[in-house]
């Protein structure tokens, strides 16, 4: 059990998320997702969670494992072409995870997703949360454009573009 991790999670709450991602940042992220999805039929979801609940924290649940749970809870896997992508940020751990559904994961390897995560984490360390997320969305959108290019009609959207705060 990592005592410093427990303390970080206990003292990172919803206010930290709202401070880092005020309404203006959430609106900019939503716009970036919408723009990224215009030329492809992929779906991007951004979810941020301040900290783990007590039981997962005491069980030392990794951010990746929690991201997979969130992927399922938000039904990111439930797209027609299996090309949903979740960007999950666990704020207390400063950890970004990308979970891609099988349609896009079969075409884009883990190394590419990890590179996007590292790029975002670098921006976050510099206090650039909004731009870090938007850069990550752009990079994911490039992959979706490459493999799932299509002209999307207005109003066609399988998953909401609004960022999710857990």
UniProtKB/TrEMBL annotation:
Pfam families: TPM_phosphatase
TPM domain span: 21-141
Domain of life: Bacteria
InterPro entries: TPM_dom
Protein name: TLP18.3, Psb32 and MOLO-1 founding protein of phosphatase
Native species: Nitrosospira briensis
Lineage of the organism: Bacteria, Pseudomonadati, Pseudomonadota, Betaproteobacteria, Nitrosomonadales
């Amino acid at each position: 059990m990592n005592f410093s991790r427990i303390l970080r999670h206990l003292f990172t709450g919803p206010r930290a998320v709202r401070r880092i991602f005020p309404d203006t940042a959430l609106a900019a992220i939503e716009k970036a997702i919408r723009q990224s999805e215009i030329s492809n039929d992929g779906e991007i979801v951004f979810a941020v969670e301040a900290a783990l609940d007590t039981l997962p924290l005491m069980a030392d649940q990794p951010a990746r494992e929690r991201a997979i749970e969130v992927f399922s809870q938000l039904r990111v896997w439930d797209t027609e072409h299996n090309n949903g992508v979740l960007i999950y940020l666990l704020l207390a751990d400063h950890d970004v995870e990308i979970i891609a559904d099988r349609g896009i994961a079969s075409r884009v390897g883990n190394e590419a997703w990890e590179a996007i995560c590292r790029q975002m984490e670098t921006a976050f360390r510099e206090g650039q949360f909004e731009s870090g997320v938007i850069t990550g969305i752009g990079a994911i959108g490039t992959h979706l454009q490459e493999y799932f290019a299509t002209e999307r009609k207005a109003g066609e959207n399988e998953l909401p573009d609004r960022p999710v705060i857990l």
